[in-house]
Design a protein that fits this description.
Layout: E1 2-6, H1 10-21, E2 25-30, E3 45-46, H2 54-73, E4 81-82, E5 86-89, H3 95-108, E6 114-117, H4 118-124, E7 134-138, E8 142-144, H5 146-159, E9 165-166, E10 169-175, E11 178-183, E12 188-191, E13 193-196, H6 202-209, E14 226-232, E15 242-245, E16 249-252, E17 258-261, H7 275-293, E18 299-306, E19 316-319, E20 326-330, H8 334-349
Parallel strand pairs: 1-2, 1-13, 2-9, 5-15, 13-20
Antiparallel strand pairs: 3-8, 4-8, 5-7, 6-7, 10-11, 11-12, 14-17, 14-18, 16-17, 19-20
Helix pairs in contact: 1-5, 1-8, 2-8
The protein binds flavin-adenine dinucleotide (FAD).
Flavin-adenine dinucleotide binds at residues 6-12, 29-32, 36-39, 41-45, 168-169, 197-201, 205, 227, 229, 305, 307-308, 331-336, 381.
């Protein structure tokens, strides 16, 4: 089949990769270039932690497994998936209740979790000056070198003769026998199917095409749709894994730098992006890093980063039209789920219907749009 993938973020690329492997004639376009939006500014914690309801947890869990398999299958190309687990701690008084709840929820879902004390905290991360003597450890979780992962898939596509074209899709029209994509500049091209994986912009394309695909509007910033992501200078601090807490989220990057988020400043995204805000947040990040590692770590950049966020917080995956010619591939937590969703999209284009996706069809919105509200619990990405 002749298939157009709109958007070369992590989801468009993994879908294109699987479609190419299945022998389709694939075109992938991006209005700016590969990895132009959320995928390049992602904390990229690979997890299924507190991803509720259970169907959503299962899909994220399948994402972790698919990353494991992808890393094993292509190990000769390097390492981008670092499955060293995640430490979660809450430094507030009354943390015991939070730990109990998360432990019970994870155990109920059969999601591996360990309660840990100060010895284990020190053993796992000796470089940290732990402000607590208790935490939870999630051994299945990982951090992803998101750009390396994207580049690898781009390389595989290029080897197969597919290179993302710079082109902006304005709208898609479907009929029983195919789909036509209209591009900025006025040209139109015919395909058998179109996969819309344009992240936060997918809703705009859908609206122009008269499909129902409710994705949060990034022009109204806030903690639900935006995050302040810090990038430190390379440092000699030996951090091995992700730490998620009420004070700071931090993870290592392959060049020795770290990604940082500060839960207490996320609400300030409502103020919109200003140089003053970024400077203030940079100072807060450096203070929290100093207290966690007992040394000054320079934050080089704070990125005001927009998420691709379905209005109800859950993935929107499946056909948008009665002719089954336009397919939606939009989700938050796309770093976690990209390898499984890319595979499932290709399976469904071939005619399968995956039970893993049945709770995430676009048709659920015909009953009305439920809005996800921000949670103040630690760590859900
Ligand atoms: C700060 C932050 C932290 C995050 N942390 C995590 C995490 O810890 N774990 C996790 O799993 N996920 C996380 N995410 C979410 C994850 O990064 C995203 O879900 C994922 O990157 C979405 O990928 P995508 O391909 O759908 O969208 P994008 O990466 O946004 O790609 C969409 C692409 O479509 C292109 N495009 C848009 N409109 C058009 C058009 N009209 N025509 C052609 N091309 C178009 C854009 O240029 C862009 O390149 C985080 C996101 C953010 C912002």
């Amino acid at each position: 089949m002749k298939i157009l993938v709109v958007g070369a973020g992590v989801l468009g690329l993994t879908a294109a990769f699987n479609l190419v492997n299945d022998g389709h004639d694939v075109t992938i376009v991006d209005k700016t270039g590969p990895y132009a939006q959320a995928s390049s500014r992602s904390f990229a914690w690979i997890n299924a932690n507190h991803k509720l309801p259970a169907e959503y947890h299962r899909l994220n869990r399948a994402g972790i497994t698919a990353h494991e398999e992808f890393q094993k299958r292509f190990a000769s190309h390097g390492t981008w998936f670092h499955q060293h687990g995640c430490i979660m701690f809450d430094s507030s008084e009354g943390n015991a209740t939070g730990y109990d709840e998360r432990y019970a929820e994870s155990t109920e879902l059969d999601y591996p979790v360990e309660r840990i004390g100060s010895d284990r905290l020190r053993e796992l991360e000796p470089a940290v000056d732990w402000p607590t003597d208790s935490g939870l450890f999630f051994p299945l979780e990982a951090h992803l070198d998101n750009e390396a992962f994207g580049s690898l898939i781009e390389d595989f596509l290029e080897d197969a003769g597919v290179k993302p074209e710079i082109a902006e899709v304005i709208r898609v029209e479907t009929k029983a026998n195919g789909a036509t994509a209209e591009f900025a500049g006025g040209s139109a091209r015919a395909f058998d199917q179109v996969v819309i994986a344009a992240g936060a912009d997918s809703g705009v394309i859908a609206e122009r095409s008269e499909f129902l695909l409710p994705v949060a509007d990034l022009s109204q910033p806030g903690p639900r749709t935006h995050s302040l992501l810090g990038v430190t200078a390379p440092t000699d601090v030996a951090l091995n894994r992700i730490i998620i807490s009420d004070k700071i989220n931090v993870r290592p990057r392959r060049d020795g730098s770290m990604f940082v988020q500060i839960p207490s400043v996320e609400a300030r995204t409502e103020e919109g992006e200003t140089p003053e805000l970024l400077n203030e947040v940079q100072a807060v990040m450096e203070t929290e890093l100093q207290s966690l590692f007992g040394k000054h770590i320079l934050v080089n950049q704070v990125i005001f980063s927009g998420r691709s966020f379905p209005e109800d917080g859950l993935s929107i995956v499946g056909y948008l039209d009665d002719h089954h010619r336009a397919y939606s591939l939009v989700t938050h937590s796309g770093m976690t789920m990209a390898p499984i969703l890319g595979r499932l999209v290709a399976d469904e284009v071939r005619g399968d219907s995956s039970p893993l996706l049945s709770a995430f069809r676009p048709s659920r919105f015909t009953e009305g749009i439920a809005h996800d509200s921000p949670t103040n619990f630690i760590g859900r990405q």
